[in-house]
Design goal:
The complex is a heterodimer of chains A (330) and B (306). Chain A has 330 residues and is mainly α. Helices cover 69% and strands 0% of the residues of chain A. Chain A has 15 helices and no strands. The longest helix of chain A is centred in the middle third of the chain and has 35 residues. Chain A is globular, with a radius of gyration of 26 Å. By secondary structure, chain B is mostly helical. Chain B has two domains: 224 residues, Orthogonal Bundle (MetI-like fold); 49 residues, no CATH class. Helix content of chain B is 70%, strand content 0%. Chain B is built from 13 helices and no strands. In chain B, helix 2 packs across helix 13 and helix 8 runs antiparallel to helix 9. The two termini of chain B are 34 Å apart. Classes of the chains: A mainly alpha (330), B mainly alpha (306). Chains A and B meet through helix 1, helix 2, helix 5, helix 6 and helix 7 of A and helix 1, helix 2, helix 4, helix 5 and helix 6 of B.
Chain lengths: 330, 306
């Protein structure tokens, strides 16, 4: 790290100063800035080491394991068992991927993103219409939905939809719509994912609402006033003023939601049948985990995980481009 | 990540919704226009529906946890009475005390380590111009997208070889790595918001860099550090996959893993399951709300504006 003040000066004219066009520093600070050329890497070193050791290195390992037939014996012995792309050809040639897992992953992510963004935007617009008191109350309430841990939130939704004594089945039973005990939504693929979608949307719409609300505050009110004078109704104003003005914010929340909803794990794994007992309801992430830790096919699980990572990498590239477009300088 | 990965990276103050911080007041946000009676009724209906939807799970969880006849509650909105039996049961039979303590230890360790490392890294990327700076930032962004499902397999093997599978320290280190990228990204914004002039004034007064860091920069980015700590705490407290995969020894279980095991043994015993859920949820809720106010206050006091 940087040394104390009285250290001898070593002028390094090529560093720092020329790179950015910012107003010249006072001489003393400029000298210090030059002297600190190595400091950023010292400051970054601990964080970079942690990230490299625990995120980057495992990523290369998962790639390596995905081209092995890696089971319990290999884990114990540490031997390699290279099989080339066999794992990948087996997965990609498996009808289970195309008929069950991929539709589950894509359909679920799409439904969650669409509902999250629509609900979040509606809540943001509502927040804008409220006075300060109700805005604070509503804001605090949606914070609670946000703060609810995924694990406990999932158990609460399971309890609400419990086929024997849950609140939903109880309510519908007393209305005479269904018979308690005869209805189990968790066993059907659609019912399972409908409950999971409700759970995920409930947990993730606050992020969209708060972010879009912050964006709404940046729209100059003169724009809306001018549109009102021109006779535009609320619907027209939303589509021709709000959406274009804060489009970058919508892009960011849509892409971030997409990334998060592709890799939903806990909310599916903890549901009845979600941990592998019901093969109809697995998504890519849960399939990878079940293949690895229930079937002990770590190589196969790794290959599935690599496919999921590649899928997310595609979305991420779009995300980063959007961010760069939004702000010239990171 | 499965956590409420709080706040948008592009805008670290996004959640300070009501704080009268500089940007907002300068841009004169649209004030709520006076409404017609019809509009007001519409607002009231919308708020009611939203509140019911939002608060329902938390309400149902807490009321079930105190309901003496939880299993036969059905859809009655009010619990049938008040009892602490379910909580007694999860502590005595479920062994939740040690689980909660383990979770707390891991979360505190993660918060301290992540706060320190992220602050150093954030100062580097926000205050210095150096080669590969953009590359580092892009890497920090990309790394957040990696699915945990892809990391759990190699890290399980790695930790197994290091014989750290049943170790709270091992889990703390893993959570540190998960919370770092986002923490760096968020703190970067807070550090960048401290005007350079404040730092330069400290230099002119004869401070060295360490002294300036401690007495000028650190107090000014404190709200950012609090926000980052909340985030890291929630990551560590809520995480399930890794704790579930790594911890096999019951004495090392975190609360989330303990709840999963408990649910496996007492399925359909909803009173105790909801009592356990309440115990896990409440600290996060309290922490979130407290930090929320503190964060807004810090911004409102103008500390960040300098």
């Amino acid at each position: 790290m940087a040394t104390e003040a009285p250290a001898p000066r070593r002028p390094r004219p090529t560093e720092t100063a020329g790179k950015q066009s910012r107003p010249p520093l006072p001489p003393a600070a400029a000298r210090r800035a030059r002297r600190r050329a190595g400091a950023p890497w010292l400051l970054l070193a601990p964080a970079l080491l942690a990230v490299a050791g625990l995120l980057l290195w495992p990523l290369t390992r998962v790639l390596w394991m995905s081209v092995q037939d890696y089971g319990l014996p290999e884990i114990v012995s540490g031997d390699t068992n290279y099989v080339g792309l066999d794992n990948y050809t087996e997965i990609l040639g498996d009808a289970y991927l195309w008929q069950t897992v991929l539709p589950n992953t894509l359909g679920f992510a799409f439904a969650c993103v669409a509902l999250t963004v629509v609900l979040g935007t509606l809540v943001a617009l509502l927040l804008q219409r409220l006075g300060p008191l109700w805005r604070t109350i509503t804001g605090s309430a949606i914070m609670m939905a946000w703060a609810m841990p995924a694990v406990t939130g999932t158990y609460v939704w399971i309890w609400l939809f419990d086929p024997l004594s849950g609140a939903v089945v109880g309510g519908l039973d007393s209305l005479g719509v269904v018979d308690a005990g005869d209805t189990n939504w968790f066993t059907s693929r659609l019912g399972f994912y409908a409950i999971a979608t409700l759970n995920v949307v409930h947990h993730s719409f606050p992020f969209v609402a708060i972010t879009v609300f912050a964006g709404l505050l940046t729209i100059p009110k003169e724009l809306h006033e001018a549109a009102i004078v021109d006779g535009a109704n609320a619907w027209q104003r939303f589509w021709s003023i709000t959406v274009p003005t804060i489009k970058p914010i919508f892009m960011v929340v849509i892409i971030l939601s997409t990334i998060w909803d592709f890799k939903v794990f806990v909310q599916l794994y903890l549901m009845p049948g979600g941990s592998g007992a019901n093969r109809d309801v697995l998504n890519l992430g849960v399939w990878s985990y079940v293949e690895s830790f229930a079937q002990r096919q770590y190589g196969m699980g790794s290959a599935i995980a690599v496919l999921l990572t590649l899928l997310l990498l595609g979305v991420t590239v779009v995300y980063i481009r959007t961010l760069f477009k939004e702000s010239e300088e990171l | 990540m499965t956590t409420p990965s709080a706040l948008t990276p592009a805008n670290p103050t996004a959640d300070a919704e009501d704080s009268p911080s500089g940007d907002r007041s300068r841009r004169r946000p649209a004030k709520p226009v006076p409404r017609s009676p019809l509009g007001r009724v519409g607002n009231a209906v919308a708020v009611t529906v939203l509140m019911v939807f939002t608060v329902l799970p938390v309400y149902w969880m807490v009321t079930t946890a105190f309901d003496p006849r939880a299993n036969s509650r059905g859809s009655s909105p009010l619990p049938s009475g008040f009892t602490l039996d379910h909580f007694r049961f999860v502590f005595d039979e479920g062994g939740f005390g040690p689980f909660l303590l383990n979770s707390l230890l891991i979360a505190i360790g993660t918060v301290l380590l992540a706060g320190l490392l992220a602050l150093l890294a954030a100062v580097a990327v926000a205050r210095f111009v150096f080669r590969f700076r953009t590359a580092v930032l892009v890497m920090v962004l990309i790394i957040q997208m990696v699915p945990l499902e892809a990391l759990v397999i190699p890290l399980f093997v790695q930790m197994r070889n290091l014989e750290m599978l049943n170790s709270l320290l091992g889990l703390t280190i893993v959570y540190l790595a998960f919370s770092l990228p986002f923490a760096i990204w968020m703190l970067r914004g807070f550090v960048a918001a401290v005007p350079k002039e404040v730092e330069e004034a400290a230099y002119l007064d004869g401070c060295g860099w360490p002294r300036m860091f401690r007495s000028v920069l650190l107090p000014l980015v404190a709200p950012g550090l609090i926000a980052t700590s909340v985030f890291s705490f929630i990551v560590a407290w809520n995480e399930f996959i890794f704790a579930f995969t790594f911890l096999q020894d019951e004495s090392k279980f975190t609360a989330a893993v303990g709840l999963h095991r408990f649910f496996g043994q007492h399925t359909n015993d909803w009173g105790p399951v909801m009592a356990g859920s309440t115990l896990i949820t409440l600290p996060v809720l309290v922490f979130f709300v407290l930090a929320q106010r503190k964060l807004s206050n810090g911004l409102a006091a103008g500390a960040v504006k300098g």
